[in-house]
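Forwarding the complex inputs:
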Amino acid sequence: MSSKRSTFLISALVFGFAFLYVPILLVMIYSFNEGKLVTVWAGFSTKWYVSLFSNDGMIDAAWNSLRIGVMSATLALALGTPAGLVMSRFGRFKGRTLFSGMIAAPLVMPEVITGLSLLLLFVTLEQMIGWPAGRGLSTITIAHTTFCAAYVAVVVQSRLSGMDTSVEEAAMDLGAKPAKIFFVITLPMILPALLAGWLLSFTLSLDDLVIASFVAGPGSTTLPMKVFSSVRLGVSPEINALATLIILAVSVMIVIASLMILRSERMRSRASAGADAQH
Amino acid sequence: MSSDKQEGSLTLKQRFDRWMIKHGRVLVVGIPYFWLFLFFLVPFLIVLKISFSVAEYAQPPYTPLFEWIDEGITVTLNFGNYLFLLSDSLYVTAYLNSIRIAAISTVITLLIGYPMAYGIARAQGSMRSVLLMLVILPFWTSFLIRVYAWIGILDREGLINAFLMWTGIISEPLIMRQTEFAVYVGIVYTYLPFMILPLYSTLEKMDVSLVEAALDLGCKPWQAFAKITLPLSMPGILAGSLLVFIPAVGEFVIPELLGGPNTLMIGRTLWNEFFANRDWPIASSVAIAMLLFLVVPIMWFQHIQTKQEEGQQ
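Prediction (whole assembly, two chains):
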């Protein structure tokens, strides 16, 4: 009976992972296709990579996206970390329900609504106080920071909730100031979560098409906007090449990050095991 | 002045420390609170406001809601946009379509995701981490590119048609792209990790001995599943379904790239009202109407999130 069950589970996993990975692999394979058609294999070639790198519009857009990504991931970390701390350590306070709502809602809010509402905010602010004057990289950065901060808050919060508070309490009993406790004890312990939150924000920002399209201005075309306008016309081998590069970069980044997180967790568990042995 | 003299004996750092102890907590709550309030909540109020105004050829292209007439402020609420949404069958159809497509895709995602999550939760040690990583990895790669990958597969000259015609199963290419079928494929494909992860986290925490006990006491495997595993994994099913359903209702990229011109979805309608017709008030009322529908699922989602946190603490 249980072998029948495990056969079913294994085939579900095989089918599921094939479904997830075959399309991506096909894009990668066909990026090396000599011909322009997707279906006809015309021999191996790297010419689409060459033409991708000589496409100035694409390079400018990629540069814009990277700058926005770094800026908004960093800002999101600065805003989301205290938000996560508040949610897991501050207990009840006035307005907590609204606060937790403003953290949970951006995770599921359809992007068209977020994009439209932020654009209308920027237009209204410009009329009332003259800021932001026009739209561009800064408005996209603000928009991305807002929804990325919610993701960071959730990551930090779930890390803090699963964490032992005894060290923090001991420091508090010994008279350490809250800020010192945070920077000396809490921050090093949640560092893997912060790294994960930053990377998540960076990729989310790099990937966003809809919100950026609403709040972008002239001269602030991001990479997804550029890709979208060329993909609308159908399959293009240059986009296949770009996709392959993005997938490879992301995979390398994820593997490195998870190895780092794994190592720091192992070191921590080893350290605590050592401390236990000494008792 | 006397207090100034007392404070004068303190160094700047001491004064800062005192101030931080007094106000630090407010500051830690206040900064993210203020940011989210200004850039997440206030925008909705503005959308609400503009949804009641009339489109104009001006910059910005809508009439002001408040006007100074005869030294008094008058509020002109215009319900015309909402009446227009109700009277034009295009919008009603787009809403119903979006809800139907999102609901069907959520069910398909659940049917594919549940056995996968179950299989991962029951896998051993390092195998489990590898499988989990394989679920998360596509989530990190570009959403747009994952949708794009299906264009090359489902197209008239795409890989499936080329393969089927090469084997001789069909002689005419199947029309798969620019249909509702392609939209289902796209949504299920891109949202599958969102379904698997919450399902996995509830199934992983589940006590397997409960199922074993039921089997020992003579339950058939499907009975044990229906009576124990399924109810216990309900929080994961709900969280995963809402994580797929809510964004899928407002999806724009997938129907635009994979759907046909007849695949009306509300996110796409909003986009066109805004970018093609430049009718900001109508776009705003489309957004508010969508939000009214989604408020219940969103609050439900938040409720589940809060309950899970409390369970963890």
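The mean pLDDT of chain B is 83.
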